[in-house]
Structure formats: structure tokens, C-alpha cells
Amino acid sequence: MLSEFLLTEMTRLGTQDALPLHRQLYEALRRAMLDGKLGAGERLPSSRDLAQDLRLSRNTVVAAINQLSVEGYLVSHVGSGTYVNDNVPRIHAGASARQAARGAPAAAGTLSQRGLALSGRFRATDLEVQPFTPGIADFSAFPLTLWQRLQNKHWRMTYPDMLDYNDSGGYAPLRRAIADYLRVFRSVQLDADQVIVTSGTQQSLELCARLLADHGDTVWVEDPAYWGAAKAFMANGLALHPVAVDDEGIHPLAADEAQRPQLIYVTPSHQYPTGAVMSLARRHQLLSTARTHGAWVLEDDYDSEYRFSGPPISSLEGLDVDGRVLYMGTFSKVLYPGIKLGYLVVPKPLVAAFKQAHYDLNRPGQMPLQAALAEFIEMGHFSSALRRARQSYAERRAALLDALKPVLGDDTYISGAEQGLHLCLRLPAPVDDRALAQQIAQQGLTVRPLSAYCLARQDLKGLVIGYGYAPLAQIGRCGQQLAAAVRQFTASGGG
Fold first, then answer.
1. Domain with CATH 1.10.10.10 in the chain
2. 30, 354, 427, 477: which has the fewest C-beta neighbours closer than 10 Å?
């Protein structure tokens, strides 16, 4: 019976999607027509009868019917009633039809092979943002009032040209401020003209992939790998060649050398996700390898602002004498994720081509936002925000390390805790870290299995644990809960 179908659908929509009543009825009626439960030319019950059967107000029913009429699903004949339009498309009956009507994923054949690969691997969005989710910074302490005042100021001062696209690589004072910061704190050798302001690291990676490599070229990526980089290269038709990472960073062997790279992507200051710091010897070796192969090195320095022990790690770019390193960073980890501003430092011979391509492909803008950020940096607010954040994260890190002490042993240890917003709890190889992560998720905590980041390796097991988003007051309790789950799981066999 039609009313029973409508009630069932409305109940599901109200529970699942929290839609208002008129929208629930609209969707239920539409699906009844698409599924063939209301055939072409079939007369609808009157609005009064529908309201009575469904225990709805008549206004709710009329609103739904009017919307369907406007969209062409229904036609009204004065004095006769409302009918299903003959032109309503039909979907084959059955479960598959209902799924299609409800917006289920399209058939596999509708996506390209590249689309299938991109949609099927490395799905970080499947994970909730919870206290130990890696890669998330705490933006609750960001000086929002000050930031709003700066933005309002620059919007008032904005002239028409600031509202246009920008073909110069970004707002000039911001590029100068970035260059000054990188020269002092990251030992990057550059002029302001080499800085290109992007919408973040993903856009920086895509620019490099498009301008420095052709379809089918090989890119060396660290194994385990940063998902975002892997997807950027896959999306641009490059062939990924995983190169294993050890305690000194990326470690290419003779078999890797046989796969000539066009690009080499690395996170040398704090490898993501293991946290390994690339040694000086390994850095020189990598630059020599790049020289031999004529490859470009992409240095992702995503969280170097947070160093908790020992001296800061200088950039790989600062050692480059051949002009083969492209350096990239982001403001999302220091300010707030949604600012979507990063930067790319390119060798001087490439500056003109990169600026032109950035303009042609991305149509960059956001000049008032960039102007506000430039003043934020120049007035010392960036340094202050960084100093406060570094202190806060250091306290959270210490609390997490203390909470994890009970599970540490000969074959269970922590890596990558000297820098950044995450650490890696390394586990013995027989442990099923994916099953462990799922079990921890049932307790309301989100961690990522280290094996999920591996492209070819099967020997790495562990948990990637973020502490950037976790309030200090929760870390002790949640950390103890996490440690207890690990201890119980490994004691039971860990399989």
C-alpha cells in the first residue's frame, strides 16, 4: 500500500538525514515514482487523504506536492486531481534500483581507472576527528578576534585589483614575509620572487607533478607514505615507486635505482607517518641520487615548526647546490586548517613557468586574505601564535608519552616524538594493527594503523597517534585507555 511505503521511507529519512517533514514526504513520493510504485499517469490520493493517512498537516502535504509539480514529476488537472507525469524516468525495480534512487555509488564502470584508484584507496575521511586523530591541529586558541580585525581592515582598504585573479605568485608582502621566515628558521636559500603562494600542500604537489613530469613517469615515494601526496601523483597519471624508509629516512637500494625517478617526494625533517629524521649522510646521498638521475626532489616540510628536543632540523633545500629541490610548507598546522594557504619555493629557472602555470590552471586570488596574513606575520603575531602552540603541544606530547609508558618494551617502542603533532607507537610485526585500531575505535578513540600507510611493505605495524587536537585534560585519561587497549590486545595474541 502506498501510505505504508511512504511512512517507511519518511521514518528512515527522518532518522538518517534529519530532514523536515515536507522534505521527507517529497523524497518518499519521488522514490515511489522512480521505483514504479506510482506508475505513469496514476492518480495521487488527494492532499486531504494523504494528510489523514500519514498523520501530517495538510500544509505539509501540499508543500511536498507543489515542489514535485514544479520539478515536473506531477501534473495537476483542475477538477480531476494530481497525476504522475508520463515523462518521469523509470529505474529498474529491485534493491539495486532503490539504491540508485537513493544516491548509492554509481556503477564501477562509470569511473575511469584513475577515478577508481583515487576513490578506493587512502580514505582519510572515513575517520572521525577525535582526540588522537593524526594530522589535526588545535585551532581553538587561534586569536580569532585579532584575525577578524586584520581581515576587516584589509577588506576596507582593498582596491578593485585586489579582487581579481593574481598572476604574480601571490601578494608581494606575504611572499617577502615567507622568504624572511624560511631564511632564518629553515635555512632555505631563496629570494622572495621564488615563493609561490598556493591553496595548500596538495596544490603545490599537483603543480610540481604537472610541470615537472609527464604521464607515466615514475615518482619515488616514501614507504610508508603520506596519503595526500600519493593521491596527488596518482591523479596526475604518475607511476608510484615505493622506497622503504628506515630510522634515517628514505633508503633507496639497487633495485630502486633501476626504476629511474623523475620526481622524488620526501618528508625529511619528520617523515610521515613514522617520524624518522633524515640523517645528514642520507640527505647528501639523496641529492647525489637526484643529480645522477636528473630527478627533481619535492621536500614537504609540513610540521617543522614544532621541534621539542634537540636543535631544529635544517631544510634539505639548504644543502642543494644543483637547484633540484622544490620546498613546500603550509600555514594550516600553525593557524587553522581552513585557511588553505601554503607556499612553494621553486628554483629560479622555473619561477616564470610555475607562476604562469599556476595562473592558467588555478586562477589564484584571495588577495585580501593574503594581505591580512602578511600583516599578521610582520607584526609578530605569527611568532607569538607559534610560540604558544609549541608550548601547548609540548605539554600534550609529554602527557601522552607518560600515559603510553606501561606498554613500552623491547619490541614496542615510540618513534617520531621529537617533532610534529603525532607520534608512532611501533608494534611487533605479528600484531594486526588494523584490528587493534578498529577495537580502539569502539572505545571512542581514533588512531590509524601504520600498515595502512604502506604501499608495498608488509613488515611495519604500529599505531599513528595524533595529539594536536586532543585537549590536555583528556590526554591522561584517554592515553591510559589507549595503553590498556594495546596491552590487552597484544597479550591476547594480537591477531
1. 2-101
2. 477
Q: Which of residues 1 and 393 earns the better pLDDT score? A: 393
The tally of CA atoms less than 13 A away on the side-chain side of residue 365 is: 9
Topology, domain 124-136+384-491: Aspartate Aminotransferase, domain 1 (3.90.1150)
CA dihedral angle for residue 167, residue 154, residue 306, residue 445, rounded to 10 degrees: -100
Q: Which strand (E) or helix (H) includes residue 484?
A: helix 472-491
The answer to whether 320 touches 188, Cβ cutoff 8 Å, is no
Q: Give, for 342, the enclosing helix (H) or strand (E).
A: strand 342-345
Predicted confidence at residue 94, as pLDDT, reads 44
Highest CATH level, class, for 2-101: mainly alpha
The burial of 193, by beta-carbon neighbours within 10 Å (0-12 exposed, 13-18 middle, 19 or more buried), is given as middle
- The residue type found at 426 is R
The rounded distance, in Å, linking the Cα atoms of 203 and 211 is 12
List where CATH 3.90.1150.10 sits in the chain.
124-136+384-491
Q: What share of the chain is helix, strand, coil (3-state, %, to 5)?
A: 50, 15, 40
Q: How many CB atoms lie within 10 A of CB 150?
A: 21
CA atoms within 13 A on the CB side of 240: 23
Give CATH 3.40.640.10 domain extents, the chain: 144-381
39 phi, psi to nearest 5 deg? -80, 165
In this structure, the strands spanning 325-330 and 296-300 are: parallel
CATH number for region 144-381? 3.40.640.10
pLDDT at 47: 87
Q: DSSP class of residue 131?
A: T
Cα 358 to Cα 365: distance, rounded to the nearest angstrom: 11
